[in-house]
Amino acid sequence: AVEQTFSIIKPDATRRNLTGKINAKFEEAGLRIVAQKRIQMTKQQAEKFYEVHAARPFYGDLVSFMTSGPVVVQVLEGENAVARNREIMGATNPANADAGTIRKEFAESIEANSVHGSDSLENAKIEIAYFFAGTEIVG
Ligand code: CMP
Description:
Layout: E1 2-9, H1 11-15, H2 19-28, E2 32-39, H3 43-49, H4 59-66, E3 71-79, H5 81-89, H6 102-106, E4 115-117, H7 121-131
Antiparallel strand pairs: 1-3, 1-4, 2-3
The structure holds adenosine-3',5'-cyclic-monophosphate.
Adenosine-3',5'-cyclic-monophosphate (CMP) binds near residues 53, 62, 111, 113 and 116.
């Protein structure tokens, strides 16, 4: 089925001017960018977005990292977009990511791993609504 998933191009990638190269990976793989904006996340936004990880030891560092520079938040649309995007991104830890994936090619570390993508359709809906109004998504 055609789905929408939520994506973030993280500060390590915007800092290295990789937005276009990462978007090319999505588009070459058949996903369409149906919403996109560059923002500076606030501490409160990052804390709430990653609330599910609040008890993890890396939570504080993750919030600092995600607010360390601009990010690009996006909605990607396509057939099986949630799973497809996870394939395009590769494993969370770039050391485990397959060749050709965004994280294998661009990520610096498990934290500075260049992109975030929703892990389920249910979370995609929640994450999209957290950053976008319906009128900002143009399919
Ligand atoms: P993301 O998909 O944005 O979701 C949570 C993020 O936490 C993850 O990508 C990583 O960038 C970051 N992170 C940092 N350390 C770890 C870790 N040890 N295990 C999993 N995720 C981590």
